[in-house]
Design goal:
There is one protein chain. This protein has helices at 3-13, 27-37, 43-54, 70-73, 83-89, 120-130, 150-169, 188-208, 235-249, 266-278, 292-304, 310-327; strands at residues 19-22, 63-68, 93-97, 102-104, 112-114, 134-141, 173-180, 217-220, 257-259, 286-290. Helices cover 46% and strands 15% of the residues. The chain has one domain: Aldolase class I (TIM Barrel, Alpha-Beta Barrel), CATH 3.20.20.70. By secondary structure, the chain is an alpha/beta fold. The strands form two sheets. The chain has an eight-stranded parallel barrel with strand order 1-2-3-6-7-8-9-10, surrounded by seven helices.
């Protein structure tokens, strides 16, 4: 696939008023989500839940793509229609999570590095045949005493860059996600410093690995205080500091940036995105790639009566998509 084709896909991922829904939870992660609402973690329940999300009426109006898990990209609706066909028919690009998750980083106690490069070329070739148009790899950066180390940041940046190069070789747009976790009591200034250092390292590594930025999407965490910090910044401050950090570290040639919700409440994630876009225009489109912030309310309703509440849960998903789509345009208002 040419860089022009990769660039077209990347631009479609951040089309005006559209964003990404992340439904790439591993089997263990969705087990925890299901346990929280009293649903058995069976393959059929996982399939039914993903069908509820992906077949929500008019979802494609505000959702440009969905990140899937390995199991999900191989599944079909109850009627036997592959999820990837359902998505493409709705104008939603299929994406796939390809990393194998974080493991302890040797020599750096308390820090992690993401694995999954072994065999990735072959897996990407299969995912491309299954219909994947983009992929996602998540790195995890913890903030703590003497953390993150430069070793942790550079190790994760290098892995992200190697993954991105392999994606483009396979004709798949890489979504690079260096998540700076909200866990901890650090203030917004510390988060800014860590996020800026992480992004600078990432784009340096992408350059070294000959990754074409025109066909790459950044999935970024917002510059925000830790969950246990007593001094919480308002939405305008979070937006302003996030934009300042991005302008300092992210090249303007990048087609777009999508944000993860990262432990924020549904409303906070939407409000912060909206505030950022109201401060535009920016060098790149700013949109969303939310998981829990898109799903949590719908999951609770669906779990209460999986068949009876199927359509009502879909309406919640569509409404969350619409609200975040408006926020991607800077046109959202609380209670709208």
């Amino acid at each position: 696939m040419s860089i022009e084709q990769l660039a077209d896909i990347a631009q479609a991922m951040v089309a005006p008023g559209k964003g990404i829904i992340a439904i790439d939870e591993s089997t263990n992660t969705i087990k925890k989500r299901f346990e929280g609402v009293g649903v058995e973690n069976s393959e059929d329940n996982r399939r039914a839940y993903r069908e509820m999300l992906l077949t929500a009426p008019n979802l494609g109006d505000h959702i440009s793509g969905a990140i899937l898990y390995d199991e999900t990209i191989r599944q079909s609706t109850r009627a036997g229609v592959p999820f990837t066909k359902v998505m493409m028919d709705a104008g939603i690009l299929p994406g796939i999570k390809v990393d194998k998750g974080p493991v302890p980083l040797a020599g750096c106690p308390g820090e992690v590095v993401t694995e999954g490069l072994d065999g990735l070329r072959q897996r990407l070739e299969e995912y491309a045949r299954l219909g994947a148009k983009f992929a996602k790899w998540r790195a995890v950066i913890n903030i703590g005493e003497d953390a993150p180390s430069s070793t942790c940041i550079e190790s994760n940046a290098h892995a992200l860059a190697r993954y991105a190069a392999l994606c483009q070789e396979a004709g798949i747009v890489p979504m690079v996600e260096p998540e700076v976790l909200m866990d901890g009591d650090h203030d917004i200034e510390v988060c800014y410093d860590v996020t800026e250092a992480t992004l600078r390292s990432l784009f340096g590594a992408l350059y070294e690995q000959n990754v074409m930025l025109e066909g790459t999407i950044l999935k970024a965490s917002m510059v925000i205080a830790g969950k246990d910090c007593k001094d919480k910044a308002d939405a305008e401050t979070v937006a302003a500091e996030t934009i300042r950090c991005l302008k300092s570290a992210v090249p303007a040639i990048l087609p777009g940036i999508v944000f993860l919700s990262g432990g924020q409440s549904d409303e906070d994630a939407t409000a912060h995105l909206n505030a950022m876009n109201q401060m535009g225009p920016h060098p790149w489109p700013l949109s969303f790639s939310y998981g829990r912030a898109m799903q949590s309310a719908a999951l609770k309703l669906w779990a209460a009566d999986m068949k009876g509440n199927f359509a009502a849960a879909q309406k919640i998903v569509a409404q969350r998509a619409r609200e975040n789509g408006l926020a991607a345009l800077g046109r959202w208002s609380k209670g709208a």
